[in-house]
Design brief:
It is built from four helices and ten strands. Helix 3 packs parallel to helix 4. By secondary structure, it is α/β, with parallel strands linked by helices.
Length: 206
């Protein structure tokens, strides 16, 4: 599908002024002051966007897409977020993750929600792990999650937090090493996403 957006005020992120945007599939192909409707004979849709703004989507790398909470009992569980609410905030890419609750919130549900958000037009990834060690995984191994689960781009852990499991230096090194090698083998970033709580140790564990 080839779509032409006419007369959009663009930011990139600095103001670019009025532009036309040619979109091929889900990719921006051209961004010019003027793209004639006849420049491409197979343009299927043309929208006149006078008064509308276009800007780069925000990347939210820490979003509880299946909800958080649960720390005050079952009635404190937070519902999952929907794609419309994410898009209304200007966010187009999310990384979903678990919080302290790795019992009622499962990685399998996180993966399924990530796939659902993708079908709604968002770019979506997830982290394995939660607040605890050993980290929760889909395949029983962080490295295998990165290599074989398309949506997994890294692992989450919590430090300096009373809800964490207080891993030692060797556990942290192994976690980081597995994420690093898994990222290399899969061609992904191999992120170690660290939640730092309000404990007195602060950043010292790092």
């Amino acid at each position: 599908m080839i779509t032409l957006l006419k007369n959009v005020y663009c930011f990139g992120p600095k103001p670019l002024g009025m532009r036309d945007i040619l979109i091929c599939g889900d990719r921006i192909y051209k961004l010019r002051p003027e793209i004639g409707c006849m420049d491409n004979g197979i343009i299927e849709r043309i929208y006149y966007c006078d008064g509308l703004l276009a800007f780069p989507g925000i990347i939210d790398q820490h979003l509880h897409i299946i909800g958080g909470g649960g720390e005050s009992g079952f009635d404190s569980l937070i519902s999952e977020i929907n794609a419309d609410d994410i898009l209304k905030a200007g966010v187009t890419t999310v990384v979903g993750l678990l919080g302290a609750d790795r019992c009622s919130k499962r990685l399998e549900a996180l993966y399924a929600k990530s796939k659902a958000l993708e079908r709604s037009g968002l770019t979506s990834y997830i982290y394995s792990g939660s607040y605890s060690v050993p980290p929760v995984t889909i395949t029983s191994d962080i490295m295998h999650d990165l290599v074989y689960i398309d949506k997994v781009i890294g692992v989450k852990i919590a430090l300096s937090d009373h809800r964490a499991s207080h891993p030692g230096i060797h556990e942290l090194l192994r976690l980081a090493s597995d994420a690093h090698l898994g990222g290399m083998l899969s061609g992904k970033a191999g992120v170690v996403h660290i939640h730092i709580g309000d404990g007195k140790a602060g950043l010292d564990p790092l």
